[in-house]
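To: structure subgroup
Subject: Chain for Friday's discussion

All,

I'm putting the inputs and outputs inline so they're searchable in the archive.
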Amino acid sequence: MEAHSEAGALGVRMIDGSGRFLPESKRGFPTPAVAFYKTFGLSSFFPKSPIFNRYHLGHLDEFETNPVDVLAGAFMWMRKSVLDQVGLLDEQFFMYGEDIDLSYRFTLANYQNYYFPETTIIHYKGESTKKGSLNYVRTFYQAMILFAKKHFSGQQAYFLCYF
C-alpha cells in the first residue's frame, strides 16, 4: 500500500469452508449492464469474459493482484485518512451492499481498490441468511435497490431498481 499512494482499500482472496475460491473476492460495480448479464446467465456462460462476467471480474486471475471495483466486506483493509474522507459504513444497509457502497465511495474520491491474493481468509458466507431462502433474496435485492437509488439517477437507477 505504501508503494501505491492511489490505493484506498485492499481486499484479499477468500475461500469457503471447503477451500473453494469465492469469486466475490473481486467484483465489478452493479451497473445495469452487469445486472442484465448476471440475471440472464451470460456471466455463467462466459465466465472469463471481461464484458459478460464483469460482476465477478472473471477475466482476472484469482492469484494476481489487480485493481478492482468492489471489495468484500468480510475483509477490507483501508487507509484511515481515506476512510475519514469518505465516511464510515452507511447504516442504511442492513447486511448486503454496504461493501459495494463503501468501495464506490472510495472510487468517487479518486482512490483505487485492490484485490490482493497473497493473503487468504476463510469466509463462511451466508451464515446469517441461508442462500436461496426468500429472506436472503429479499435482503440482497433491497440492498441493491438502496445502492442504485443512492448512487444512480434516471434510467440507470430505474433499471437496477425494477429490473
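Points worth raising on Friday:
The mean pLDDT is 84.
The longest strand covers residues 112-122.

D.
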